[in-house]
Design goal:
The chain is an alpha+beta fold and about 375 residues long. It has twelve helices and 17 strands. The radius of gyration is 21 Å and the shape is globular.
């Protein structure tokens, strides 16, 4: 019997009966994102610990309230990792992102375009639905799905479908070879052309970042894979090879949005951080005010700092190339809680979300208003 889960189950059952909103919360490091934070806090951090870990099988099952850093440390001891590099977004040393929060947020770091997203490594979940029923979906192997792959619905659901109690994840060995190349004095258009060309070649591309800083553009490309493949790519791609130990902190800062480009937004308190998701082959976008984005994911992710009043122009620019734009961090997010926005691009998609919400949480008690004002 799981004694730490029993009181949580009773609280969910009582909330469903009384229709009391509950705000599912782990470390709270991503409270800045979403439409609103409503309900009594239901802390998941009592659900802590690694249930099973088979390094030879590349599978780990962990309780949802386990600190993400704790899981990463255990994997590192075995020379393994979460290759999608989930961001922690911890603001202070006391903050600790949780594994459940990682799945619920569904956010991935710099390597996402090359290795896949959180959902691609999610093998199974156990969760409490809005009726206080403990449900298990998926398992601990890749090919275990018959019918709907329900477990992956939980990635990026922001706790609106249920309270995660355990998750099973596929992990991978740390790549034996790694190198970062820097290309200085390169504009965005040329950087995108290089990335598109490299993408069509058998190169061990892992992550990229183009940033315009102090009047000039710089492209960083990280290679990971077999040592021979990385060394060969370094010889053919050009650029300046950087010291791995030195540049590792910069990639972490890119993942955690602590690079100077991100922190500079503090000097413009009326600006939001916008997230534009577009095809990697999309050209340079005409952005309002001549804004210079920070470009990741080989061109597929473009961060923009602009007022919320520029929203229509940004959304139109993204949709013109088959993408979307949404507020990732609103100007007052750190003061007022969640105030980002999710871009549901069609009524049909919105209806699917609503039906899923009703199926898993008929009383609407989990994280109401976080993803949509209607539920």
């Amino acid at each position: 019997m799981d004694f730490s889960l029993a009181p949580i189950t009773e609280r969910v059952r009582a909330a469903a009966a009384d229709q009391t909103p509950l705000r599912i919360r782990g470390g709270g490091t991503k409270d800045f994102h979403g439409l609103a934070l409503h309900g009594e806090v239901l802390d998941t951090r009592v659900l802590r610990g690694i249930v099973s870990y088979e390094p030879s099988e590349l599978v780990v099952t962990v309780r949802a309230g386990t600190p993400l850093a704790e899981l990463e440390a255990v994997l590192a001891e075995q020379g393994q990792c979460l290759p999608f590099e989930p961001p922690h977004f911890a603001k202070t040393p006391a903050d600790a992102a949780t594994v459940g929060g990682m799945v619920a947020a569904g956010l991935s770091g710099p390597a996402r375009a090359s290795v896949g997203a959180v959902r691609d490594y999610l093998l199974g979940v156990t969760l409490l639905n809005g009726k206080a029923e403990l449900l298990t979906f998926g398992g601990q192997v890749m090919k275990n799905v018959a019918g709907y792959d329900v477990a992956r619905l939980m990635a990026g659901a922001w706790g609106t479908l249920g309270l995660l109690t355990e998750v099973s994840l596929k992990v991978l060995p740390v790549a034996p070879g790694e190198a970062t190349l820097r290309f200085e004095g390169i504009n965005q258009a040329d950087a995108l052309r290089k990335l598109h060309a490299w993408g069509g070649q058998p190169l061990p591309l892992n992550a990229s970042c183009w940033v315009h800083d102090e009047g000039a553009g710089t492209l960083y490309v990280r290679l990971r894979g077999a040592v021979a493949a990385v060394e060969a790519a370094c010889k053919t791609m050009g650029g300046t090879r950087m010291d791995n130990a030195t540049v590792a902190a910069d990639w972490t800062a890119c993942r955690e949005q602590t690079l100077p480009w991100f922190t500079d937004r503090a000097t413009r308190p009326d600006h939001a951080l916008w997230r534009l998701s577009v095809p990697a082959t999309a050209p340079v976008l005409a952005l309002p005010g001549g804004a210079q984005p920070l470009v990741e994911w080989h061109g597929a992710l473009r961060w923009v700092q602009a007022p919320e009043s520029a929203g229509d122009a940004l959304r139109e620019a993204a949709r013109a190339v088959g993408g979307s734009a949404s507020v990732f961090i609103a100007p007052e997010a750190n003061k007022t809680g969640a105030s980002g926005a999710f871009d549901l691009q069609s009524k049909a998609l919105e209806q699917i979300h609503t039906r899923l919400k009703h199926s898993f949480d008929p009383a609407g008690i989990f994280n109401p208003g976080r993803m949509a004002r209607a539920w």
